[in-house]
Sequence to fold (296 residues):
Amino acid sequence: MFKLGASDENAALAFDDLASALDAGLPLDSLGGNASLGDQVLVDLSRQRGITLRPSEQAVLEAAWKSGNATAALRSRAEDRRRRAEFHREVWAGLRYPLLLLGMMPIVAAATYSLVGPNFSIGLGIVYFAIAAIVFLLVRKIGRGDASLERYPIIGPLLDEIRELPYLESLHSLYGAGIPIVDAHRKAIATVRMHGLQERLIMAQKLLEDGAPLREALQTSTSLCPETRSLLATGEESGQLEDALKRALIRRQEIASRKLNLAAQRLGQAAYMLAVAGAIIIIFQFYSGYIAMLHG
Fold:
């Protein structure tokens, strides 16, 4: 059975195993490493173990090998991958029931076709086509990072939480690997897909390059939500920016998970109402046909 988050879990295990091997002092060539690759050594070892690296992870591993913090960076990558896998599992747990209900309706329609006739199947097909068209349009807009999505009643609040996650995850990883905040911020912007947030972060990047601290750059550009800006400002002022980035990331993941679960519950209620309506229609058509047959 397919296990959601399995690729991230496998990557976390591979990162931990590689970190353990390096801590044990095993020769690089015994691990399959090639010292001639320079800063690409960890990147190459990770790919040999079947890990598909994101651009931010590649930059982190390169910086970590260069600075001599390879094992710490590998274990940090493992922790982030596990956190990502857990987040995906929580989201799927909320969506599983409504998707199951929606998937059962065509089966019920096919099973009762000979009893209730084609009308129910045709009506259900129209409803599903409309749902599929809406989902398709939303997916396309999300893929393009369309800023208009932020104004949608249900999608907008969800995106407010989700859109910050790639940025915070990348910035935390890059900065934790010893990359200066200006360079780390520039690389982290590349992971943001929503154009509205991306434009504001580019504005913040210009302020950083002009010498402004991160808290001032984010506040002036209103790039992130007020809660995230407050956490990062406090962390930067106290010299604990890396820890603040981690806490902000975990906070946004927890809130995003709760909001996604709430949205999934509403979707489940809608799917349940659709299933109840379908059952009523099937029963009504069946008994109508049965009574008509008796009177015939």
